[in-house]
Design brief:
Length: 334
């Protein structure tokens, strides 16, 4: 008969914050040096896991029932056994705001949402994005999560747990600094090439770097991550979906008056994005045509209320779009 020997193997014990930080360490390890495709895949998966764990850890600090998909049906026994469906990342962000009073900015929420999309793509139908896009977005999400831990999780910890978190943050932060320096060097190298087109350069929908110039007769490609788009239509929609307000874009796709498209007053294509953010003016919306690359200082609605926009006339003539002008006067708008 075999003797029963007490096991000497360790227990697996990962409380949520330690678990989240452990995932972050894995992410920076995978991104170090020259990551392989395999490294980048695990960087995406582990970063998404870290995001979920850390956001929910803060909800849990508030009350354990808040991590249930339906807190009204929360049950302590099921919670302790891990036998429950938990809320998703978007819902966690909304609960943090509504219940805990922590506001994750719109910009950070978009980064997190894009990462979640990548993770879903990997799990369900495959992901195809350029390697530098993964590095760039991962660096941005790592930065968001480190700030989140420092500002919102560490204050609720004490003793050994707080010390462990501080050490973890320190290691991840110093490794992230190297990745950020690498990204900055790459952007600095691109600066002279991009500077002349600042008013036509937008943030890339894949990597978020302001490195995508819309210049006629030049390829539709991000100079940072080298993602390319076959047509301006594809790019404009990808941009509206990922970079602009995703809710407004969904509204547009459902037939609402969303951010796309408008007819460009110049080339008349329907690819004028009214609230584009350009490298020349990243903090305010600038109307930019994704077809001809024209950007506009000021546009006003067509006086006939047809939904088009026009460059305001300075000489007292009526602000009419070409279609309404022709309708009103019987000849082409000069
Ligand atoms: Zn890019
Ligand atoms: Zn145009
Ligand atoms: Zn009109």
């Amino acid at each position: 008969m075999t003797e029963l020997i007490p096991s000497e193997r360790p227990r697996v014990h990962f409380p949520p914050i330690a678990n989240g930080i452990d995932y972050l360490q894995s992410v920076v390890n995978h991104l170090a040096g020259e990551p392989t495709v395999w490294d980048l895949k695990y960087a995406v998966l582990h970063l998404q896991s870290a995001t979920e764990v850390l956001l929910k850890a803060r909800l849990q600090q508030e009350h354990w029932s808040l991590v249930f998909k339906d807190p009204g049906k929360a049950d302590r026994v099921r919670f302790e056994n891990g036998e429950f469906e938990s809320c998703g990342t978007a819902e966690a962000i909304s609960r943090l705001r509504g219940i805990v009073g922590i506001v994750v900015s719109e910009k950070d929420t978009k980064q997190i949402a894009q990462l979640a999309k990548w993770r879903n793509a990997l799990q369900h139908y495959g992901l195809s994005v350029p390697a530098p896009a993964v590095e760039s977005r991962a660096a941005q999400v790592l930065d968001i999560l480190l700030r989140f831990i420092t500002d919102h999780l560490v204050p609720g910890l004490s003793g050994g747990e707080a010390e462990f978190a501080d050490e973890g943050i320190y290691t991840v932060r110093s490794r992230l600094a190297k990745i950020q320096a690498f990204i900055k060097t790459r952007m600095d190298r691109l600066r002279p090439e991009l500077e002349p087109y600042a008013a036509q350069t937008v943030a890339c929908p894949e990597c978020s770097q302001p490195a995508l110039p819309l210049v006629v007769d030049s390829p539709l490609s991000c100079r940072f991550c080298e993602e390319t788009w076959a047509t301006p239509e594809q790019l404009a929609h990808h941009y509206a979906r990922n970079v602009l307000d995703p809710k407004a874009y969904a509204d547009f796709e459902n037939g609402g008056d969303g951010p796309l498209p408008r007819a460009c007053p110049d080339c008349r294509s329907g690819l004028l994005v009214l609230d584009a953010r350009t490298a020349a003016a990243p903090d305010r919306p600038s109307p930019l045509c994704f077809s001809c690359g024209n950007s506009y200082e000021e546009l006003v609605a067509c006086e006939y209320g047809c939904g088009s926009v026009v460059v305001p006339t300075k000489d007292g003539r009526r602000d009419l779009c070409p279609m309404c002008f022709e309708h009103a006067y019987g000849f082409d708008k000069p």
